[in-house]
C-alpha cells in the first residue's frame, strides 16, 4: 500500500510538477498545502506517513513545521525540498528532525530516491547540499549565525525575510515580548545594530536571495522585500 503523502509548497506550479513526478513513480499525493498553517492542519487531520515541504512559506515556516511534526508524531518522515542551497539551512533542518534535504536544482530522480530513503528511515541529502555541508565542515571558523540557538535562527530567518515582530510571534506561537527579547539577543550575538544589519549579514552569508528596499529599524519594523 502506498504511504500517505503531504506535499507542502507555496507555489502551485511546483506542487503540480512534484505531483506528476510522484504519480509517474507510483506514489499518491493525498493532500497538498500552500501555507505552513494549512500544512499543520492537514497533518493533524490525516497523519501522513511522509511530509515533503519547502522551508519558506507564509504563516508558518518549514523549520517550525518540522519541529511540530516530530513532536506530534515522531515516526513521520520529513523531506525538505527547497531552493535554499546554503548548508546552514540543511543542518538546521536536520537538527529539527528532517530526514532528507533536497534542493530544487537537483535532478528529478533525486526526489524519488530521497523519498525511498527517508521512508526507509535513512538520511538523504542531494549531492549538491551534501558537498556544501562537507566543505563547510572543513572551515576552521564557524560563521556568526552558527552561534544562534534553534529558536533564535527561526526568528532571524523570518526577520530577514521581511516579517514584522507581531507576524513572527503568530508564526512561531510566541508572545510579542518573547520575540522582542529574541531579536535583542540575535542582534547582540551577531553584533548588529539594526534589522538592516541582519539583512546585510544574511545576504553576505548566502542565507537570503531576496533584494530588500529601504530599511527603517524600530520595534515593529522589518525590511520590505522588493517585488
From TrEMBL:
Pfam families from the entry? GerE (PF00196), Response_reg (PF00072)
Q: Which InterPro entries match?
A: CheY-like_superfamily, NreC/VraR/RcsB-like_REC, Sig_transdc_resp-reg_C-effctor, Sig_transdc_resp-reg_receiver, Tscrpt_reg_LuxR_C, WalR-like
Q: Report which superkingdom the organism of origin falls in.
A: Bacteria
Sorted alphabetically, the Gene Ontology BP terms of this entry are:
phosphorelay signal transduction system; regulation of DNA-templated transcription
What are the HTH luxR-type domain coordinates in residue numbering? 141-206
Q: Which residues carry this modification: 4-aspartylphosphate?
A: 54
Q: Where are the transmembrane segments?
A: none
A molecular function annotated in GO for this UniProt entry is: DNA binding
Q: Which SMART domains match?
A: HTH_LUXR (SM00421), REC (SM00448)
Q: Which UniProt keywords apply?
A: DNA-binding, Phosphoprotein
Q: Which CDD domains match?
A: LuxR_C_like, REC_NarL-like
Matching Gene3D superfamilies = 3.40.50.2300
The residues covered by the Response regulatory domain are: 4-119
Please give the name of this protein: LuxR family transcriptional regulator
Amino acid at each position: 500500500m502506498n504511504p500517505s503523502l503531504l506535499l507542502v509548497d507555496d507555489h502551485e506550479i511546483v506542487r503540480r510538477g512534484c505531483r506528476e513526478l510522484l504519480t509517474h513513480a507510483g506514489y499518491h499525493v493525498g493532500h497538498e498545502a500552500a501555507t505552513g498553517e494549512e500544512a499543520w492542519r492537514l497533518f493533524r487531520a490525516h497523519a501522513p506517513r511522509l511530509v515533503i515541504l519547502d522551508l519558506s512559506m507564509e504563516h508558518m515556516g518549514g523549520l517550525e513545521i518540522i519541529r511540530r511534526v516530530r513532536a506530534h508524531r515522531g515516526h513521520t518522515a520529513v523531506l525538505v525540498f527547497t531552493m535554499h542551497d546554503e548548508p546552514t539551512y540543511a543542518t538546521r533542518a536536520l537538527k529539527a528532525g528532517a530526514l532528507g534535504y533536497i534542493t530544487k536544482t537537483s535532478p528529478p530522480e533525486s526526489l524519488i530516491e530521497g523519498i525511498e530513503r527517508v521512508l526507509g528511515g535513512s538520511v538523504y541529502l542531494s549531492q549538491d547540499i551534501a558537498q556544501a555541508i562537507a566543505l563547510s565542515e572543513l572551515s576552521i571558523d564557524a560563521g556568526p549565525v552558527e552561534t544562534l540557538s534553534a529558536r533564535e535562527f527561526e526568528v532571524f530567518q523570518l526577520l530577514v525575510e521581511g516579517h514584522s515582530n507581531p507576524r513572527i510571534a503568530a508564526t512561531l506561537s510566541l508572545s510579542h515580548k518573547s520575540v522582542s527579547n529574541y531579536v535583542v539577543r540575535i542582534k547582540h550575538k551577531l553584533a548588529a545594530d539594526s534589522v538592516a544589519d541582519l539583512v546585510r549579514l544574511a545576504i553576505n552569508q548566502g542565507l537570503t536571495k531576496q533584494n530588500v528596499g529601504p530599511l527603517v529599524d524600530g520595534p515593529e519594523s522589518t525590511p520590505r522585500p522588493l517585488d
